[in-house]
Write a structure and sequence with these properties.
This protein is α/β, with parallel strands linked by helices. It has 14 helices and 9 strands. The chain is globular, with a radius of gyration of 21 Å.
């Protein structure tokens, strides 16, 4: 739980994933506030205060479940697993090794499965100094991974129903900790509506059981994975026209869609995003938008988070300054969420761009 990692967990699970869970939405602000206080304590190396706040957050999650709220919710599970993981890091920094192992084991029970991150996290140095116990935790994760049913694949290609040798495609990028099976169902709708093959690529980082998110610390590597997904689709669809691909995304997946358009390795016919925000390179380089010649259709709610609102204002201004085609659609009364009619909204964006 370096400072960067903790910040990423906050943005990923509270801004992106947590806000989409309607049952949990009323509790988002308070839990987000607690996480920000934990980050402050971490940055100031006040381990005791961080642990106090972590226990408070874990208690909140426990009470929600006792009240029957979010018991089966994958997002709450991911929030819980990361709360325990962050507490383990704080306890390890405080020199409370036994307590740290307890938190870490609970994190794994709640679905923390990122072995690579665990092995590289320097905050857990005191736990790694006990190799037998630390290896047992990793073994537990690997056993869980081997026995997980219905693991969602890295890439999935959906064919429009009844289509004969489709040649046009859509690259679809889900948000962080999004229900991937529900996302795939929506993308199948979109495939049927448009007659296009839909290529789904998921994030590389584990957020819990069958939950994934994109690694914002290395979006370059993530864009390469999109290229691999396209190559996978071309195995079965050799006539797929990669010069006419459309890229779409939701939330963090939308941010990656922008990054992919900037990378230049693959040209896209258009970009259509829902509840997106600026990719890291756009945040760092105000002139980066000049490299994007792809038309864009941006969809977002009227009650969005400040980050998303600011991102859309920036992109609209930048596009228009370059005389590039861009259109927005505001969903009245909607916050940061994946709409029930997302397939129809994506198609609306595609239709607009194709009509230009």
């Amino acid at each position: 739980m370096t400072i960067r990692t903790l910040a990423l967990l906050i943005s990923t699970f509270f801004l992106i994933g947590f806000a989409g869970a309607q049952e949990l939405a009323p509790y988002r602000q308070e839990m987000d506030s607690i996480n920000k206080q934990i980050r402050t304590a971490y940055q100031s190396e006040d381990w005791a205060r961080g642990l106090e706040l972590s226990d408070h957050l874990i208690g909140k999650i426990t009470h929600l479940r006792e009240d029957g709220i979010g018991n089966e919710d994958l997002v709450l599970q991911s929030v819980s697993s990361n709360a325990y993981y962050n507490a383990a890091c704080l306890a390890a920094k405080a020199g409370e090794t036994d307590r740290a192992f307890g938190y870490l084991e609970n994190a794994v029970s709640e679905g923390f499965l990122n072995v690579s991150h665990l092995e590289q996290d320097t905050d857990l140095a005191s736990l790694k100094a006990q190799p037998a116990r630390f290896s047992a935790v990793i073994k537990s994760i690997n056993t869980t991974l081997q026995n997980l049913p219905m693991r969602f694949p890295e890439y999935q290609v959906l064919e429009p129903t009844g289509a004969q040798n489709p040649t046009q495609g859509i690259v679809a990028l889900p948000g962080a900790a999004q229900d991937l099976r529900a996302f795939a169902d929506t993308m199948q709708e979109l495939a049927d509506m448009t007659g296009r093959v839909v290529i789904i690529a998921r994030g590389s980082r584990y957020a819990g059981r069958d939950l994934f998110y994109w690694d914002e610390s290395d979006f370059t590597a993530e864009t390469r994975r999109i290229g691999e997904a396209i190559e996978t689709a071309q195995v079965d669809y050799r006539d797929l026209d990669t010069d006419e691909l459309i890229i779409i995304g939701y939330s963090q997946g939308a941010a990656l869609a922008w990054e992919a358009a900037l990378a230049g390795d693959q040209q896209y016919q258009c970009i259509v995003t829902i509840a997106g925000y600026r990719a890291p390179s756009l945040s760092k380089n105000a002139d980066a938008m000049r490299r994007v010649s792809t038309p864009a259709y941006l969809i977002y709610g009227s009650d969005e988070t400040p980050l998303v609102e600011d991102s859309h204002s920036y992109m609209v201004e930048a596009f228009r300054a370059q005389l590039q085609k861009i259109e927005t659609k505001v969903l009245e009364g909607k916050g940061h969420e994946f709409p029930d009619n997302a397939a129809a909204l994506y198609k609306e964006g595609i239709d607009w761009i194709e009509s230009q």
